[in-house]
Amino acid sequence: MSDYEVTPQTKIKRLPKRAVYDRQQIYGILDEALLCHVGFVQDDQPFVIPTIHARIGNTIFVHGSAASRMLRSLEGGISACVTVTLLDGLVLARSTFHHSMNYRSAVILGTLKLVSDSEKKREVLDTIVEHVIPGRSAEARGPNEQELKATSVLSMDINEASAKIRTGPPGDEEEDYSLPVWAGVIPLSLEPGTAEADDRLVDGVKEPDYVTEYHR
Amino acid sequence: MSDYEVTPQTKIKRLPKRAVYDRQQIYGILDEALLCHVGFVQDDQPFVIPTIHARIGNTIFVHGSAASRMLRSLEGGISACVTVTLLDGLVLARSTFHHSMNYRSAVILGTLKLVSDSEKKREVLDTIVEHVIPGRSAEARGPNEQELKATSVLSMDINEASAKIRTGPPGDEEEDYSLPVWAGVIPLSLEPGTAEADDRLVDGVKEPDYVTEYHR
Predict the structure, then answer these.
(1) What is the DSSP letter of A21?
(2) Distance (Å) from the alpha carbon of B57 to chain A's nearest alpha carbon
């Protein structure tokens, strides 16, 4: 069974034909995205913080700025939502009503828990680096004990998840197809520019292939 | 006074040197981003939903899928957080600890309220289309009464807001600068591909300049 169970909270009510509960497709969205948005509540105020994530098996990990505000209210886990969105294109219909975007988004509901085990933290931080730039973790200096301590890592098991995907051309009202209005899709993708080497590189250090050939 | 007041909820605690409260800079981030992530709470569960937004003056408007789940718990407004994130590059430091991203993010805390006035809704929907593709709203067929009714628009006044911005090269530990490890920045940007015309265009309809020359 490779689908996540549809719960009242993950059931997609608007445009359900775009709903996806398939595990592999949800993993694919999580793995392609460079960042996620973490939602949590503090004193009745919802917060949404962008941060970097990575997936290991059926668990998603986040670290960084999301942790600092959350950690103040974290005692044995905090109810949260991790959302990832990939924008694939702008959809121009003949009517403004049917304008849309092509996108792939995944929403995970669950409990974020603090990872305290040093070895696990080390594995997660390596995985996060590899998630962003495959090949990098073998070259950069890994975290020392002090850096490991200073880094907060949170985990969420992926048990309640859904995705929403839109692809393809606009869908117009039948009577609008006779309008002399251009319609179609402008594809969008996150593209790397030319890498900018740091001013203080050691002589002879070359740009690695994983930088030159970086793509998402 | 062009800065937003720093409140306990918007005070940036982690890496405060990246904090920005300047109104024009926050507007700039909101206006460049094609989508936002809206956070809200329902039955103690936080949700984060991606959706399209637009700003008019000091108010941000959202519509679409975010509305449908939220509207069920919307009675005179719902406490929410609207977050927008622009990813500008990957920052490769000599240590994994100092790896980072160049980004610009804005977080707005407030109350989302339903916009019910038809004329205001029409203005907002036009503005959303213009926000995504300047020039488009004058060409596409605008919403009829039924479409207007079927579209939910929510507004949030921007009174409590902060931004976080990182730019520039990696910042390594002094002793790491002697490591023979490549370091620098891989710039990233959202780039349009070649527009894909819909199969059913009326004969003679040309691709508009705002499509051919689309950029963010």
Answers:
(1) -
(2) 22
Q: Is residue A8 part of a domain?
A: no
Cα A40 from Cα A91, distance rounded (Å): 31
Mutation site for A-interface testing, chosen from B38, B91, B92, B147 by largest number of A Cβ within 10 Å: B92
- Give me the CATH number covering residue A196: 2.30.110.10
* Cβ-nearest to A41 among B46, B94, B164: B46
- Asked whether residue A4 is domain-assigned, the answer is no
How far, in Å, CA of A59 to CA of A39, rounded? Answer: 17
Range of the domain at B184: 16-212
Cα–Cα nearest to B5, from B31, B23, B29, B24: B23
Residues A35, A193, A100, B64: what is their CA dihedral angle, to the nearest 10 degrees? Answer: 30
- What's the half-sphere exposure (Cβ side, CA atoms, 13 Å) at B108? 28
B-contacting residues in A 82-111 (Cβ below 8 Å) = 82-83, 85, 87, 89-90, 92-97, 99, 101, 103, 105, 107, 109
The answer to whether residues B169 and B100 touch, using CB atoms and an 8 Å cutoff, is no
Place of tokens 């051919």: B212
Question: For residue B3, is it within any domain?
Answer: no
Q: Which residues of A touch B81 (CB under 8 A)?
A: 39, 45-48
Which among B50, B101, B132 is the nearest to A52, CB-wise?
Answer: B101
Establish if B27 belongs to a structural domain: yes
Quote the pTM value: 0.94
Per-residue confidence in pLDDT tens, chain A, 216 aa: 579 999 988 888 777 888 899 999 999 999 999 999 999 998 899 999 999 999 999 999 998 655 566 666 665 689 999 999 999 999 999 999 999 999 999 999 999 999 989 999 999 999 999 999 999 999 999 999 999 988 889 999 999 999 999 999 999 999 999 999 999 999 999 999 999 999 999 999 999 999 999 998
The total of structural domains in chain B comes to: 1
